[in-house]
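Per your request, structure below.
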């Protein structure tokens, strides 16, 4: 919980500064670039509490200085010097949430039994776009495949869950049979 509060504060500071300087898109792209590096040793080095802030800063600048804005480099230097590098993932995540809110982007988690075709994906987006919660928002689909759903889909928007799967329907029918007052309970 403590890391989340720290991450929110740092992310808000970075977002506000990017907004002030008109570099929101550039900083977002920088964070995408930094997040895109999947080198395990670099990730361990940057969040390690044992390695000094100066060392982390020098490594960060050596790796990213030519690829990111000076604003982003300065921000990460501050994070390293203040000893907050363990919260980097949370800071980036919080910044991305603020960016999505600022741009009117809504993340929709979509789970289906099989991978979707492009035509089906467009159709689902069009239907979702008509929902009151998603009016005037750009929808960003995060797709997942779960064969145990049998068919249908599960849509999650923030804390709202819509389950339109065959598995859910079968479980509902089973509960109806088990609790039927005219039939002896099935075990």
């Amino acid at each position: 919980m403590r890391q989340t509060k720290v991450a929110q504060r740092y992310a808000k500071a970075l977002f506000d500064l990017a907004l002030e300087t008109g570099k929101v898109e550039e900083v977002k792209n920088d964070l995408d670039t930094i997040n895109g590096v999947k080198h395990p040793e670099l990730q361990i080095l940057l969040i390690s509490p044992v390695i000094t802030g100066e060392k982390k800063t020098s490594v960060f600048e050596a790796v990213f200085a030519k690829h990111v804005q000076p604003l982003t480099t300065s921000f990460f230097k501050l994070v390293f010097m203040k000893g907050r590098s363990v919260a980097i993932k949370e800071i980036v995540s919080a910044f991305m949430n603020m960016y999505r809110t600022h741009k009117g982007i809504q993340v929709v988690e979509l789970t289906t039994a099989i991978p979707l075709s492009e035509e089906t994906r467009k159709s689902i987006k069009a239907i979702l776009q008509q929902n009151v919660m998603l009016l005037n928002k750009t929808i960003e689909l995060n797709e997942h495949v779960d064969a145990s759903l049998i068919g249908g889909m599960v849509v999650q928007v923030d804390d709202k869950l819509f389950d339109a799967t065959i598995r859910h329907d079968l479980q509902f029918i089973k509960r109806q049979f088990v609790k039927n007052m005219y039939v002896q309970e099935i075990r």
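The longest strand covers residues 105-112.

Regards,
D.
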